[in-house]
Amino acid sequence: MPSSPWHWTLRPALPPEPMASAESTESERKYEPGPTARAPRFLDIPGVEHTGEPAEMLLEAVYFDTPDMELARRAITLRRRTGGPDDGWHLKLPLGPDDRQEIHAPLGQPDDVPPRLLERLAAFTRGRELSPTARLTTRRTTTRLYGPSGEHLADFSDDHVHAAQLRGPEPKGREQGAHWREWELELVHATPELFRAAEPVIAAAGARPAGHSSKVARALGDTWPAGTNQGPLRPRKNGPVRDVVLAYLDDRITEILANDAEVRREEPEALHHMRSAVRRTRSALAIYRPLFNKGAAARLEDELRWIGRVLGRPRDAEVLRTRILADLGGLPDEQSSGPVRGQIEHELGAKYDGGYRRALAALDSSRYFLLLDALEDFRNHPPAKAKAERKAGKASAKLINQAIGRLEKSERKARRTPDGPRHDKALHKIRKDAKRLRHGAETAVPFHGKAARKLRKSAHRLQEVLGRHQDAVIARELLAGFADAPDLSESSKAIYQHLARQEQDTAEQSQAAYEKTRKKVWKRRLGS
After folding, report:
1. Are residues 203 and 277 in the same domain?
2. Domain shared by 211 and 302, yes or no
C-alpha cells in the first residue's frame, strides 16, 4: 500500500447482464481543458498507482428526442453509437449529480429504437415520436487509472468532438458544425472520493469543470431546453402547508414514472408498487383538498382512482390466487392436486392475464398520458387557495386530525350495522379511511416527527387487520360461488366448502383483531 492516506473502497462489480439489454450505473465528471492544457499528472492523484497505455478510438453517435425535446428537459439521453467496445443503443437516466443509469441494447437498425428502450421511455415520451437531433463524432483517447493492487479505478478520456445538428437550420456561424475538446473522468471501481482527489490535479493541468451537462447539450446550444429537475422540495414546519402536498406529490410522481417501465416489463411486484404510489397520491390530494381549487383536485382524484382500479384488477387476482392455492396446499395430496387446483389456477390465472393486458393498454392510452401531464402541471403550477399559505405544522395537523374524525365516523356506522354483507362493506370503508389516514400521516413526518410516525403506524396496523378481513371475505365469496356450480363432483364441492369455512374463520378472527386495534388510532391526534 502507498504511504498516501487515501485508501479506496471499491464499488462491487456488477453481475454480467444479458446482451439483449444490459444495465449499469455510470458515474462521471466532465471538464473543459483550456487552450494550453496538458495531460494531467495521473500519478499525483492520491490512490492512483499506475496507468495503462493510452488507447484511441473513433466514436459516432446519433442522439434522439421528441419534437419538444422532452427527454432533454428531463436530463435523459438516448443515442445510437458505433465504434468502441460498447457500440449499440444507450439510454441514460439521471440518478444524481454525477450518476446515471445506463441501459444498453444492440445496434439494430439506425432509426428503429429497440422496444425495450421504448418501454423505459413511454412514461416520458407519452405517445410522441422520437427522431434524430444531433450527430457527434468523437476522437477519444482513453487512459486507464489503476490502484496499488491493480484494481481498475477509473477511465480518463481526452475527447475531440465534432457535432452537427440534425433538426432545422444550423445556428449562424456553425454551418460546418461545432468543434471542441473535453475531458471525462469516469469511475469504474473507485468510489466518488476519487473525483475530489483528482480535482486539484486536473485543475493544475489547465482544465475546469464543464459548463454543460452532456456533449449533446453543448451541440444543441440555445435549442437545449431548461431542465425540469429543480431538486427535491423539502417542506418546513413554519413554511406554507402547500409545500407539504407538493413535496409528497413530487416523490409519488417519481415513483409512478419509475414503476411504469417495470409494469410494462412485467417485473415482479411492479403492479403493487405502482398502484401503491397512485393510492398515496390520491390520499394526499383528498386530505389536503381544501387547500386547492376543488374541481382541479377532484378531477385528479377521479383519474387516479381510474388507473388505480385498472392496476388493481390483475394484482388482486394474483393475490387471491396465491392465497387460495396456499390454503389448498394444506390439504391432503389427493385433494390439493386434483381438479379444484386446476380450476383455481385457470379462473384466476385468466383474470390476471386479462387484467394485465388491460393495464398495459391503459398505460398506452391518451387518458393515462394526460393524467401524467395533469399531475406534473398540478405540482409545477398548483391551483392553491390563500389558505395553502398557512404554516405547515398547524394546518397539516388540522387536516390530518379531520381524517381521524372521518375514520371515527365510519367506525361508528359499522358498529350500528348488523353482521352480514353490509357490515363487511362498512369494515372495508374503515380500511380505506385508515389507509388514507396512514398516507396523510406520512406527509407530516418531516415536521411532526414521532407523533406522525406513531399515527402512521397505528393506521397501518388497522389497515392490515381489515385488509386480511377483506381478502378473506372476497376469497370466501369466490369459493362459495365455485361450490354452488352445477355438475360439480361431491368431492370438489366438499373441498370448496371447506376452504370457504376457513376463510370465514379468518374473517371472524380479523374482525376480533380489529376490535383490539381500533382504539389505538382514536387516542392519537397531531398537535399544532
Report:
1. no
2. no
From 115, 129, 123, 95, select the one nearest 24 (Cα to Cα). Answer: 95
d(CA 419, CA 428): 13
Block residue for cell numbers 372476497:
474
Flag whether 7 is in a domain.
no
Nearest to 464 by CA among 504, 510, 414, 521: 510
Quote the pLDDT of residue 318. 94
Tell me: do 250 and 175 sit in the same domain: no
Sign of CA dihedral 100, 103, 104, 109: negative
Domain count, the chain: 2
| Domain carrying residue 290 | 242-522
Residue 79, domain CATH: 2.40.320.10
- What are the φ and ψ backbone dihedral angles of 63, each rounded to 5 degrees? -100, 145
Q: How far apart are CA 75 and CA 64, in angstroms?
A: 13
| pLDDT value of residue 95 | 87
Specify whether the CB–CB gap between 46 and 125 falls below 8 A.
Answer: no
pLDDT on residue 524: 72
Residue with cell 469511475: 187
Q: And the C-alpha cell for 107?
A: 445496434
Q: How far apart are CA 283 and CA 271, in angstroms?
A: 18
- Is 180 in the same domain as 315? no
pLDDT at 18: 37
Regions of the chain short of the pLDDT cut 50: 1-19, 171-175
* pLDDT of the residue at 15: 39
The pTM is what? 0.88
